[in-house]
Amino acid sequence: MVEGPNVRLGNGVELLGEVKCYFDPVDIGHSGIYCISHAHFDHLPSKMLGDEVICSPITQRCAQDRLKRKLKIKEHPQVKVLDSGHILGSNMFLFEGEQRVLYTGDMCSRDRLGLMGAKPVKTDILILESTFGLPRYIFPPREEMERTILDWVEDKLASGRSVAVLAYPLGKSQEMLMLFKDMDPYLYGSSLLMTQLIEDVGVEFSYRPFDLRRIEEPFLMICPTGVRRASFIENLRKKGMLTISISGWAVDSSFRQRMGVDEAFILSDHADFNDLLWFTEKCEPSVVYTHHGFERDLASQIQTRLSIDSYPLAKDQRSLLEF
Question: Domain residue spans in the chain?
């Protein structure tokens, strides 16, 4: 494990000094500052002794449902909460002490569908996500891809074919609701549940809850990735329904086959490789610690291309496909 000045990977990403700060911690205790960037399972704690965290109201609401525990939002004068542009309610955290430390969590620097992209902040230490930290992960322009997806779905519906969009329940499902807001989509399962939780915080969406007994064909449905092999999905596919997946991983030619869908489109809620380099350069850090993905490769690329000292914080990761 590589450690930098006051930074290490342990209980999440730890910033150790006179004040101890834990970013996306595994355990939440009673002492220290605990920051949760968003409510995807791979960023939530697995053990909770304390209940005070720095996070957004959306993250609080969704995390409480997933953890089955109450969380109290707190503030700290040394921690500035910033938008990360990843999903609704996701945050970066800027710790201001002797050195400024920016923790991005999962982030996207591109504005999209009502979400503001993450904005670079000048910092001494940058702790940067590396989900798409390989040079091959370059995404097409968002507006172009959004139009391509809309045209494809509209064509299929016009020809009498229903379409199921497989999406992460939290984040991508709500992004798809905004993309398809004029097409009266159905919403199913945990995608519906997460959307209703976000609505509790005051965000509005337009959709119809999916009920197999009352569907009007052809239809557009947004549903969680995990149901792609469910029997009712298989039955609908036998009747002609098409399935699509929308992800940055669609850059890989094998993605469509691995997901078992009819079509895949490249659209991500993460920064691509070029965005990660651009964001890093604009933050003007003295040192970068890469984390959560292709951390070793990205650290090497930042060192080579930007001449900034960069080190990976590596640890076994779970697959992102199920989040």
Answer: 7-136+270-322, 142-265
